[in-house]
What we know:
The complex is a heterodimer of chains A (251) and B (640). Chain A is of the alpha+beta class and 251 residues long. Chain A is 36% helix and 14% strand.
Amino acid sequence: MSQAAQRTLKFEIFRYNPEDPASKPHMQAFELQETPFMSLFIALNKLREEQDPTLQFDFVCRSAVCGSCGMMVNGRPALACKTLTSQLERTIRLHPLPAFRLVGDLAVDTGSWFRGMTERVQGWIEAKAPFDPDAVEERMDDEVARAIYERERCIECGCCVASCAVANTRPAFVAPAGLNRIARFMMDPRDRRKTGDWFEVFASDEGVFGCLGLMACQDVCPKELPLREVYAYLRRKSLTGILSRRAKPAT
Amino acid sequence: MIGAGLAGERCAIEAAAAGHSVLILSLVPPRRSHSCAAQGGMQAALGNCAKAEGDSPDVHFLDTVRGSDWGADQEVARIFADTAPLAVRELAHFGVPWTRLRPGINRYHIKGEQVDVDEPTDKAGLIMHRDFGGTAKWRACYAAAGTGHATLYAVDSQVVRLGIDVLDRMEAIALVHDGERCHGAVVRCLRTGRLETILARATVIATGGYGRIYGGYTSNAVINEGMGAVLALDTGIVPLGNMEAVQFHPTGLWPAGILVTEGCRGDGGYLLNAAGERFLVALEPEKQELASRDVVSRHMMNEILAGRGVDSPNGPHLWLDLRHLGEEHLTTRLREIYEICHDFLGIKPWEDLVPVRPTQHYSMGGVRVNKDGQAYGLAGLFAVGEAACWDMHGFNRLGGNSLAETIVAGRIVGARIADFVTRAGPGPDAALGSAELKAQEQRLRDLAQRPAGGRSLYQLRDEMGEIMMNRLGVFRTGEEIEAAVRDLKRLLQEAGSIGLRATAPGPNPELTYALRLPGMLRLALVTAEGALARRESRGAHHRIDYPQRNDAEWLNRTLARWLPGAEGPRLSYEPVGLLDLPPGHRGYGASGYVDLDVSLEAYNQRVAAAQSAEGCLETAEPVGSSLRPGAWRGAFSAPN
Lengths: 251, 640
Ligand SMILES: Cc1cc2nc3c(=O)[nH]c(=O)nc-3n(C[C@H](O)[C@H](O)[C@H](O)COP(=O)(O)OP(=O)(O)OC[C@H]3O[C@@H](n4cnc5c(N)ncnc54)[C@H](O)[C@@H]3O)c2cc1C
Ligand code: SF4
Ligand code: SF4
Ligand code: FES
């Protein structure tokens, strides 16, 4: 990474405060001196602290694990905290993520969206039996644990949702993160639901059949979740689901 | 429930399961709480893998008390160690994809050597453990290096399943109370900026740590500003416990402060100085890199002060060497560490060294509660998790014990709250609520009317951070702390007259921060005054001018109250709690200490009376009833 950079960065930032009747959506320009290893977390805080105290954005962990800071960086969804300015051109355009309700400026309400999604896909373990405090934990092969963990790593940042043409036009679509969540619980041996129980949610146009398969989502996922594999898995599951339904004797 | 991290959510589940209606408030969506950032693991003595053989809650209890440098309440440590296995198994039931035991030959790195260990077939598929600092056995249960993430998602999924309401972007800014009982809180909506009162029969502070009083020198999230501790302090009644007990983690990325888990050293990583030497081998022959965090951090700072650090434009640091662990291990069982190295330094940890230096990490201090989680002095107020001083950590928390605390305490305190609400008399007083709402509205108006000018809030914050890290860091001296107290008092005054530079309807981030900063400065002062008064060294609190632990004079817990209108805190002390394991050498770190000058029996006799004199409210079970005196005798690693 070039230490010699020291450029003067130009920011163009989307501004709109829904709480202020006088506020209209517009782009605002800022200039900022670049420093070594400057991330958008550092840059945006500097802008707020030194230039415009009203600027709204969200950061929590500043280490790419909490999923708070998704935004459009030059038209592409990304986690701002792990985006280094040295990776970008001198002019940086920032917008809030589309597909989510705007809180103000760059801050969007991903929290309500993800809670709603979790409710819809019932993204929790439906246990086979109540917890037995006296029993040793149910055994699990470490390979299975690893595979579940691989899908569990989604940080609900919403980047994939923002990148997905279907999710942007059809709010009922459970979106990439939702499909991933379904796959995560479907493959968990501790869950008592059978493929058929999931059928309504995922084998429909709101689910995996709504997906156009262009994989914009996988390209933008900051956690590099294997979304392509997830959809292949779900399609396979839904086909077996359909076949097994057909195979059922008519009553 | 103020706070939607692991502690708050686990506690809410317990109370909701008992049939009570629970409302959770949080600054951010629950899954973004800082619990999600915990990496390495959660301690519970399941004793599953070969290197955990012989482990038991007794050994866990001993490790925890020694780790605390005898500052812990041993009864609480006992309750904790006994319940942790159950709590971790319950998390498996909630869906945490714990890393599992692979039977047969596994290759580990232990104390600088590659070792092949045959893992028992009859334990195949049970929860695996990794080694952590200050423990006699491998005990930390983990999900790769995303333990906090996996746990928080599992617990939150139960919150959603149970339909528990969560209001995110809601900040509690004051408690409603009548001097004896808490009736809820006044909250500010961070979407609209509006204030409202939320009345409750029981109010719980589960707001996490106060690391951000160290400015940028912390591994904590930007929202860990200690606002829960401030809520309690502002009552003038509820004391904060042991605020001077602040943990520094040996391996913060330098200079970003982002944490690199202790699991790295647990899995065999080394610390190196500029010359490439493993300096800890000579200094801590027994535990080497895996002595407790306070001890390792001090050795590291000494190494740097002796000029053996690695120079960099941001100041000297040391190296964490993970190269020998290899790419496969680093991209699976330590995957998050690889990601951090890649994203923030552009390096591959199997090829490059990682620059590290101790950074503020954990707040042992917090709202002082009894073993039921009930705050001293105010009925109906509870605290749980990092925000609380339940006090199983004393002056140094062991790695992995905090995640476990959130879950264990969440279960226990949640049940106590359910009990309390069922028994509690009349409901909350709405008139008190509206009075407090008016007072808070006035506070906002006053703030808005102050003329802008002078330094910005953020400059004050940065100065506070410098003071705390430079003068209340790993090493402390009386002179330095006195200077810190003077400077913090000046900053607190200055903060009281700063006006806003911009007014904007809605949440207005500057106003949000202006409401928080004076509280943070008060916490900083409480920390400094506590550290100044404590003329000994215990755990993470290390006074160069009083380098020994002094059990004759300081085997106690600091309590700090801030009386209305006062310029600083009022300190008092209580015994640490009943002693079961007598104070002694920890097995690592300094070996000298000043011994207790009374018998254990005499010390113990004072405990219950002294605690209730400090305003400790009645417990559901009498003090001492959960202790199993002497049960640890004969346990592995017990003293003779
Ligand atoms: C980087 C890192 C790694 C760690 N790794 C480990 C580990 O491997 N093992 C381990 O045992 N421990 C670890 N810890 C410590 C552990 O993660 C924390 O101590 C623990 O998660 C704290 O949980 P909590 O629920 O008490 O608080 P938090 O998770 O911090 O939650 C606090 C909650 O309170 C809310 N809140 C705060 N103020 C207000 C307010 N005024 N009004 C309303 N809501 C409010 C927040 O929104 C949040 O929901 C780590 C810590 C860090 C920083
Ligand atoms: S592949 Fe499917 S889910 Fe992904 S962006 Fe395209 S349409 Fe959306
Ligand atoms: S799948 Fe990836 S991009 Fe989508 S929300 Fe999860 S982490 Fe973000
Ligand atoms: S701030 Fe947490 S992911 Fe960026």
